[in-house]
Amino acid sequence: MSDQRSEQDSKLSLAYIFKHHELLVDQHLQLPRVEKLDSDLNFIAGDQIIARDLHIEEAIPEGLQWIPIRQLISQWSQVEFEQASRAMQLLEWRRNHKFCSHCGSETEVHSSEYAMVCPACRYHQYPRVQPCVITVITRGDDEILLAKNAKNKSNMYGLIAGFVEVGETLEAAVQRETLEEVGIKLKNIQYLSSQPWPFPSNLMIAFKAEYDSGDLVLQEEEISDAQFFKFDQLPEIPFAGSIAYAMIQHVIHQTPMHKK
Predict the structure, then answer these.
(1) In degrees rounded to 5, what are phi and psi of residue 240?
(2) Stretch 60-85: mean pLDDT
C-alpha cells in the first residue's frame, strides 16, 4: 500500500494556489500537492510545480487554509517567498492579458514561454515588472527618516518609496520621490538590494542615502507625517521579512540585507 501511495504522490504537482492575495497552505504552512489541470500555469520548467487561480466558489480540501501572502513573508525563507511572488505575478499577468492590446482578439498561451499570443496579429504580450525605488535616509550618525503614509490607518512609519518614471535613472527617481514627498535633497545614494513585491507586480529596488539639505515639507496627499528619529527611539516600523524592515536594521545594526 505504501509503495502505491508513494507512486501516486510522485504524479502530483506542488501547487501555488491563489485566491486574490491569499495562498493555500496546510497547518505547517506547506504547499499542497494536487493533480495537474490543463489550465494550470507551469511554474518551473522540468519540475512538477504549478500555479493556479482558485475560483471564489470552489471549496478547499480539508486540512488546508487560506493565508495572506504578506503573512508568509516573515515565516518563509527569502527563496520560498520569491517563488510564491513569482507564481502570483505570473497568474496576475495571465489574468490581465486575455485579449490583445493591439487588435482586441482573444489571446492564446504560448506553448513554451511566458507569452500571451494573439492569433490574429501575432503580437506577443510578456510579463511586465514595475520598478519601484525605496530609500532609507540617514542624518548624521544616529538619525533615520521615517514617514507615515497618508492612506495608512495604523501608526506604522516606513521609508520613502515610489515608481520609477519613463526615461528616468534609479538614482534620479530616488532624488525626485524624496523631494516630492518630504522636500529634502540627498547625497551619497548607494544601491543596497531588491525584492519582488507581488502587489500586483513590483520590483522594490533599495537604496540608502544621506540627508543633504532642505526642511521637511510634506506632500500631504501622500505623507501624513515624517520625522528624523533617533536610532534608539523608533516608532512602529514595517514587519520583519519586508525589504523596508531589512533596510532599517541594516543602517542601525549593520545586519545583512538578505536572510537565508
Answers:
(1) -60, 140
(2) 88
